[in-house]
Specification:
Endonuclease III, domain 1; two-stranded antiparallel ribbon; 11% strand; alpha+beta; 319 residues; DNA-3-methyladenine glycosylase activity; single chain; 5-stranded antiparallel β-sheet
Length: 319
Amino acid sequence: MPEDTAPPRPAAAQAPGRTRTWAPPSPLDVRRTLMPLRRGGGDPTFRITPDGTVWRASRTPAGPATLRLTGSPAAIEGTAWGPGAQWLLDGLPSLLGADDDPSAFVPRHRVVHAAHRRHPGLRLTRTGLVLESLIPSVLEQKVTTIEAYRAWRLLLLQHGEAAPGPRGAAAPPGMRVMPDPAGWARVPSWDWRGAGVDDKRASAVLRAVRLGGRLDSLADRPAEEASALLRSVPGIGPWTAAETLQRSHGAPDAVTVGDLHLPHHIGYALTGEPRSDDETMLRLLAPYAGQRHRAARLILLAAPGPPRRAPRMAPPRHR
């Protein structure tokens, strides 16, 4: 089956959309705030149309739903469809950073200060959906970004369901909602392999979905406590927990440790040295204790990474 062709599935039930308008209390960059939720340009759960409209499909505790964001930075209009529509609208302010407190951040380096001034509308999103952030983070373990994004896209096209949407409106085609825990458990071994997911990562996903709603209940726990509980699940380490909590909790201090590129990028931006390790990165970010993830995001936005020493590694071919 071609990679971009989804098997036919019944369309999601369609109903009139529900709408909510929210006025942010301070400058807000909607696209940059939500961009960490997009897993590549072909992510079936996330679209930005040419007119700037943001679309996002989620599996909420109330069921699948699709959210459309329009309007201006001063008044953002969210319209949602599907059984989980009201759940998404209730969480709209948190999704757009209302729970985030950027005033607690004090830049300590020139490059960070410049980025902080240049991006006043950056907020840390909080989805309240742990499993939704955890599964793609597991898929990103120990592989290239291209491989991980491909796996997420293929698995959703094959096993997700059509995203709810408006009747007769221009919803982006091909949007999907990720499977529920039972749906993930039914993914056959050959589809994991066909998506390039090895047994170790597939097993970690299956262990996580067996916990199901118990993992999503971690959204109500403090980030440090939720991190410890996540890391108690075999196959979920500090890297995966941090990547999850950055999105589910909007955790400002959830710095990603164990990443292949991040220490080099931060080290190069702050010292000019092209090669760094986790220990060096944590030392450089120590002045931002409590806000290390925000500092890292600003550095990634403002400063180029170190020059590459070799061509980008091509992802392996899977049969």
